[in-house]
Structures are given as structure tokens and as C-alpha cells.
Design a protein that fits this description.
With 263 residues, this protein is mainly alpha-helical. It has one domain. The protein has a two-stranded antiparallel sheet. Helix 1 packs antiparallel against helix 4. The longest helix has 34 residues. The radius of gyration is 21 Å and the shape is elongated.
């Protein structure tokens, strides 16, 4: 199954957990020690996180469509921007739609992260049962064994960190962060989503700081700041692939454990 289809992986994961539940209910499964059965039951109960993630995908689709419509509108002559039928200035509409896009993606990713961390039940998850992990934690090696976190940082580190940095900026600071302004222009135009040069340098440095992973070339970095929304969504396409991997890894390991213990 291609890693790009996140919804398909979530639905497949739910089916996997159903198979684990069936195996646990079998004669061999019922002969497991009580503690083992409890561990499997706790993991199976996390199925609802994947169901919630599928619902969040619909929220995200609407947020993405809104930003596409906004991009098309801002290049029109004398555009009028409305949020829920209320006319707003261009910078206000831009920030609100970017926040919606950022929040919808990271609500999805963190819902998946919480479910997967509880299924994987690494030492970190066991010792900190009240902690709600973020997908960014998986790149730090906090919620996956088998050195999988090294594959994550190598293959997805840049996009994971970039998406996270942009999300944190607009969610926690709005458009301005200390002396930096996120966008280069305050007027609707073809370059209305361009990231300010100094701000982009700051974002790139913060992104590099999070993980040791391959970084785009200087030419590619320059191109990325031309459209904040497109850059964010391109990064999220890679994070979708990462999320699919984390989901499949977590439930796959759980099913293998159940099959081996009940064989």
C-alpha cells in the first residue's frame, strides 16, 4: 500500500487491531497471563484514535480547500475577503486561514501520535502515561524502538521539523514573532504568501536545529519561501507518509507480538 494514502493506512490499522482482538479472544489468547492480556487490551482500545484521525482528515480537506480559494482570490483586482460572511482585511484572512490549515494538520498528526505511542508502549509511554506525545517526539526516539527514529530523522526530519516550526509560529505567535514578521507583504498580490527574508532565515535555522537530517540546497531553500502555504503543504505531504509509516509500524509490531505469543 503506498504511504501517501494516510486514510487507507488508518483504516487498515483499525482492521489490524480488530484481528488482534480476535486473536486475544481465541483459546490460545485466553491462556495468556492476565498482564499480557491487559497490555493487548489497552493497545486495542486505542483504535478510537485512528477513527478520530479519519474524522480530522475531513476537517483538513476543508481547510486546504479554503487556502486554495484564498490564493485564487488574492490575485483578483480589488478582492474582498470574507470569513463567515464577515468582510476582513487581507492580512487577517491570510492569518486565520493559515492557522486553520496548520491546526488541522497537526491535530491530525498528534492524534495519530498519541494512539501509536500507546500501542507501541515504549518505556517513555509507560513512564509518562499522562503525557500526550507529539509526532515530533517520534523523531527524537521517544516512542519507537528498533532505531526507527533514525530512519524517521533521515527520511523525514527536514519536512517534519519545517512543518512543525511553521505551525508553532502561526499558532503561538500569530503573524509576528518577536522582531520577525512572517509574511513579506501586507497587500493582496501574487506574492501575498511570500515569507519575509529574515523570518525565513530564522525558520530554516530553527528547523535545522531540531534534527540532524538532509537539508535542501540553497537554491531550493530560496524557492521555498515564495509561498508559505505551498511550502507548508509540501512538508505535510511528507509528514503524511511518516504518519502512515508510524501507524503501520505500531499496529504491525503489536499484531506480530500477539501472533507469536499465541502460537
Amino acid at each position: 500500500m503506498p504511504l501517501t494514502d494516510l486514510e487507507a493506512h488508518l483504516r487498515a490499522a483499525m482492521q489490524t487491531l480488530d484481528r488482534v482482538a480476535t486473536g486475544l479472544a481465541s483459546t490460545a489468547g485466553q491462556q495468556l497471563p492476565s498482564r499480557s492480556k491487559d497490555l493487548f487490551s489497552e493497545a486495542i482500545a486505542r483504535r478510537n484514535y485512528f477513527a478520530n484521525a479519519i474524522q480530522l482528515l475531513e476537517f483538513r480537506r476543508h481547510a486546504h480547500r479554503a487556502i486554495d480559494e484564498f490564493r485564487a482570490l488574492m490575485v483578483q483586482p480589488n478582492p474582498v475577503f470574507r470569513i463567515n460572511e464577515v468582510q476582513v482585511d487581507f492580512p487577517v484572512a491570510r492569518l486565520m486561514l493559515f492557522q486553520s490549515m496548520a491546526c488541522s494538520n497537526w491535530a491530525l498528526y498528534d492524534t495519530i501520535a498519541v494512539g501509536c505511542s500507546r500501542i507501541s508502549m515504549t518505556d517513555t509511554a509507560v513512564k509518562n502515561p499522562q503525557k500526550s506525545p507529539s509526532l515530533i517526539d517520534f523523531g527524537r526516539g521517544e516512542n519507537m524502538g528498533g532505531r526507527m527514529h533514525e530512519h524517521i530523522t533521515t527520511c523525514f526530519g527536514w519536512n517534519l521539523a519545517l512543518s512543525y516550526e511553521l505551525r508553532n509560529w502561526v499558532v503561538h505567535s500569530g503573524e509576528n514573532k518577536s522582531e520577525f514578521k512572517l509574511f513579506d507583504s501586507q497587500n493582496p498580490s501574487a506574492s501575498g504568501l511570500k515569507i519575509d527574508d529574515d523570518s525565513w532565515d530564522f525558520i530554516v535555522n530553527e528547523t535545522k536545529r531540531r534534527f540532524t537530517s538532509p537539508v535542501p540546497s540553497a537554491t531550493e531553500l530560496t524557492a521555498l519561501k515564495a509561498d508559505a502555504a505551498a511550502t507548508f503543504l509540501d512538508a505535510c505531504a511528507a509528514v503524511d507518509r511518516l504518519s502512515s509509516l508510524v501507524v503501520s509500524w505500531s499496529v504491525g509490531c503489536l499484531e506480530l507480538q500477539q501472533q507469536l505469543l499465541c502460537s
